[in-house]
Amino acid sequence: MLTKSIPSLFTVGNLFLGVLSIILAFSGEHGVAAVLVIVAMLLDGLDGRVARALNAQSEFGKELDSLSDVISFGVAPAFIMYVVAFNDPTVISPAFAWIVTAIFPICGALRLARFNVVAGTPGYFIGLPIPAAGGVLCTLALFVNDINVYVLLVSTVLLSYLMVSTVKYPNFKKAGIPKAAIWVTPIIVAAAILIAIKWPESISKMIFVPLLMYALYGLKKNVDGYFIRLRNLRRKNKRRAMEESNSVKSDL
């Protein structure tokens, strides 16, 4: 029974870090708040792998994971961004800032609900996974002094859209953990927390780059797909026009 509960402990740890991140953001510790979201991503990636290694997958764990993700990667990153960049009524209308901030966790919840009930494509996620979106948002907030606040607003809305879009993203969750290596996971988590506490902002900004590349990968694929469909449509119309022209000539 204890073995079956181990994956849920990772999920609860993910939720705990998400709540703690919100508290720290409220207290002005934005760098530490962002890096706790990153550590929560590590726990979120481990819980499913540990569950598969221990053969402890369950509907309870699946639902708990989704609820935790809404807090840790939806509410927490949106709150960090709001406190850091959007909480200035002289720059942004408060009502507009509230709406943009609320849209992010709402889209995250919709993304998770769809993930739970709609069968996806093997090897891919449909829509940007909420941990990746939350990781990009909370680390992006740390660049508030270097990026215009309106760019941050647009980025928040774009990340929200990517979560509920039909863009395909590579799924790395199938990479498992050997059962014999389960004991190493607490050490990895502890080491990640220690590193995060020592260099919070530096680590967060370093992780921002690969997370951003992952988010942009799907966006690029979506744009490429749009141009391919447009090109195919033009070819189809051109072919149809030629067939109609040939048909008119034969009638004459």
Structure characterization notes:
- 77% of the residues lie in helices and 2% in strands.
- With 252 residues, it is mainly α.
- The protein has a two-stranded antiparallel ribbon with strand order 1-2.
- The longest helix is centred in the C-terminal third of the chain and has 52 residues, at 200-251.
- The chain is globular.
- 38% of the residues are buried.
- One of its GO terms (molecular function) is CDP-diacylglycerol-serine O-phosphatidyltransferase activity.
List its salient traits.
mainly alpha, 2 strands
List the helices and strands and how they pair.
Layout: H1 2-26, H2 30-53, H3 59-86, H4 94-117, E1 124-126, H5 130-140, H6 149-164, E2 168-170, H7 185-198, H8 200-251
Antiparallel strand pairs: 1-2
Helix pairs in contact: 1-2, 1-3, 2-3, 2-5, 2-7, 2-8, 3-4, 3-5, 3-6, 4-6, 5-6, 5-8, 7-8
**Cα-to-Cα separation, first versus last residue:** 84 Å
CATH class: Mainly Alpha
**Unreliable stretches covering 5 or more consecutive residues:** none
Helix and strand content put the structural class at mainly alpha
Most strands sheet: 2 strands, antiparallel
Number of helices: 8
CATH-defined fold name: Four Helix Bundle (Hemerythrin (Met), subunit A)
Q: Report strand order across the widest sheet.
A: 1-2
Number of domain units? 1
GO biological process, one term: phospholipid biosynthetic process
InterPro entries: CDP-alcohol_PTase-I (IPR050324), CDP-diaglyc--ser_O-PTrfase (IPR004533), CDP-OH_P_trans (IPR000462), CDP-OH_PTrfase_TM_dom (IPR043130), CDP_ALCOHOL_P_TRANSF_CS (IPR048254)
Pfam family, one: CDP-OH_P_transf
Protein name: CDP-diacylglycerol--serine O-phosphatidyltransferase
